[in-house]
User: What shape does this take?
Amino acid sequence: MTCVPSFIYSYSSTTKESYISAVIQEEINKLYEWTVSWNLPLNVGKSGFIHIGRCLNLNLTVHTHTLKPLNTVLDSGLRYSNSLNFSEHIISQVSKARKLMGLIMIKFNNIESRLLLYRKCVLPILEYGILVHSNCRHNDLIKIEGVQRKFTKVVLRYSDNKDHHQRCQQLNLEPLWIRRIKLNLAFIYRPINGISYSPVSTPSYLMISSHNLRDKENILAIPRTHTNLRQNFFLIRYSTMWNRLPVNLRCSETTTRFESLLDDFLSESGLFHLLNINVFNNDLYKQGPSSI
Assistant: This one.
């Protein structure tokens, strides 16, 4: 057995570089000693470090092996760069999904089998690590949507001039960006209702005075933002969406009830209100809004 562990170290902008290097090196030494004591050889050939933030010149070693700085890493199935760019992750997942979709099209001929396998096998690939999609570039999200556009065209054999919206309706498929909204709002629902735990920032309800309770139950406090980049962060974007949901949806007693009511609410009129948009055309249906 080979051990390939990972850990994260954070620091403030005022911390001295020598101190950062010494602290991380001490942790690496402890880790190496632990692997030796438990007879779990550390795979130093696959070891390295990735740095996010201001440039540092860190000299880190594992025993006699010098750790190399990495530009991209694959951790828990997510591939990301030292600038927190998830484009490579999207490219990798889209490639896997297209290959599997091609195999399904070759091996199965009837629409029902293709639809079943697409939902069970291809969609989980496209939706893996879905929480990071709100931090992806819009062009990357279009690539994800392109997989389903291609699938609907091939399944229906290019037999008519229906647009993407009509093809999805015929096959009873939702656009992936609408599925992301539902999955992410359900994810928000769980920690604020104590159903799941998050070690990072968790949304919290805003305290409302007793004389101003009309439609204000379970409103989330939204942190202040000063940049457009910050406004597109997951917690900011989806807390804003949460506060636009009807009060009966926000006060759902169970996850199942919440998801059922959310399905009913997210008709086109519900999407208008949730996304604060006035026009819902085929281009928006195909690509979805940015940062979703």
In short: Residues 207-211 have pLDDT under 50 and may be disordered. Residues 17-37 form the longest helix (21 residues). The first strand starts at residue 48 and ends at 49.
